[in-house]
Amino acid sequence: MRALVALSILAAGFAGSAWAQTIGAPGNVKLNEICESRGRPGCPVQLSIEGQITAETARSFTSLIELEQKRVGATIRPVVNIQSTGGDLQAAMVIGREIRLRTGTIRSTGPCHSACVFAAMGGVERHLVGIGLHRPYFAYADTNLFSEADARYKKMLRLIMDYMFEMNISEELLRVMISVPPGEMRLLPLPDARRIGLNGVDPAYDEFRTGQEAAQYGLTSMELRRREVAIETQCGREEDMRSLADLHKRDACRKATRERIMWGLDEQNLVKFNRATEERCRELEPDSLERRLCVRRVADALRTPARP
């Protein structure tokens, strides 16, 4: 299969003033949904990237995020939908680092070929379809000395390896890339993308998120993971579901059992817990520290045996 757009390393840098793109303006980066909760850290915003990735794409992407963050008055969390057949590797890395800095999510229904994959690596949650890989190469290789070309190629590989290490991506992905000539494209099967770690949750972010959730329930990370296994055992694993009906049944099971198992409550106390949190904590901002502490106090009171 011939590559549609090459993943190339260009000499152009990213210096200079960034330009702002208004919502819906022409270009291959758009801000589709703004943050609705001004002043709330981590407020999600929806962006899209379509077409070839260039230095201009990276500048536009960064500028849009900075303008939205300034408007909101707090950090934002980008949710990026990307469809691209490739482009400038350095620009893709700028986009990837910007997404990771803000613990963003990236999605693609395909294609996501070549340099697009490097932009997608920046998501701490990645959901990609239509992943296409081939060996990176130079747009301009103007040298008469093999030694210079060899040194330049090795420098490129070190750049890529350092970036992948930064993004917590397995070097196995690079081995697959360099095995495919620049004039070809290898589509990566979804099971391989998950096994390599390209699809799924970044391991460092998983530790961070698990720690936060464990603290919410008053558990250690180890105990929270143990209880997650108990839920999976009871309701089944997503990858074992064979039909949409099975998935719906699993989701219903998880919804019915998760809070009971995580809080360590029986059915009777779970009813009391839900009623008490509705009465005592409903005026508090959702996802706020105050509400989490309120809910935790209700659960602790129900878990504490009554004194004789």
Characterization of the model:
- There is one protein chain.
- The chain has 308 residues and is α/β, with parallel strands linked by helices.
- It folds into two domains: 8-200, 2-enoyl-CoA Hydratase, Chain A, domain 1 (Alpha-Beta Complex); 204-303, no CATH class.
- It has helices at 55-72, 89-101, 115-120, 146-166, 172-178, 190-196, 203-217, 221-235, 244-263, 267-281, 289-303; strands spanning 8-9, 29-33, 43-50, 76-83, 105-108, 112-113, 125-128, 131-133, 137-138, 186-187, 200-201.
- The chain has a six-stranded mixed β-sheet. The chain has a three-stranded mixed β-sheet with strand order 6-8-10. A two-stranded parallel ribbon has the order 1-9.
- Strand 3, helix 1 (55-72) and strand 4 (76-83) form a beta-alpha-beta unit.
- The longest helix has 21 residues, at 146-166.
- The protein starts with 7 loop residues before the first strand and ends in a 5-residue tail after the last helix.
- Mean pLDDT is 86; it is low at 1-26.
Descriptive terms for the model:
single chain, 308 residues, alpha/beta, 2-enoyl-CoA Hydratase, Chain A, domain 1, 2 domains, six-stranded mixed beta sheet, three-stranded mixed beta sheet, 11 helices, disordered N terminus
